[in-house]
Design goal:
Length: 75
């Protein structure tokens, strides 16, 4: 019984990682939210890029969601 409990705890630790947060971008024209496309930096780190164009309206201007409130409020 104790051995099974130890195995369960070990598995829980392996599975309890925090998933990476995907960057989100807001279309400046229609405010549709897009997930960033993953890519790698030359150093091998993951980064996210906005899409080439909005899937809703076709615009190509995006703002990171963390900057959206300041962008729209002209702050």
């Amino acid at each position: 019984m104790a051995e099974n409990l130890m195995q369960l705890r070990s598995q829980a630790r392996i599975m309890s990682h925090t998933p990476e947060e995907v960057a989100r971008y807001v279309c400046d024209n229609c405010q549709l939210i897009h997930a960033g496309a993953p890519s790698r930096t030359p150093a091998g780190k993951r980064r996210f890029e906005p899409p080439a164009e909005c899937g809703g309206c076709g615009a190509d201007e995006f703002v990171g969601i963390e900057n959206w409130i300041h962008h729209r409020a002209d702050e």
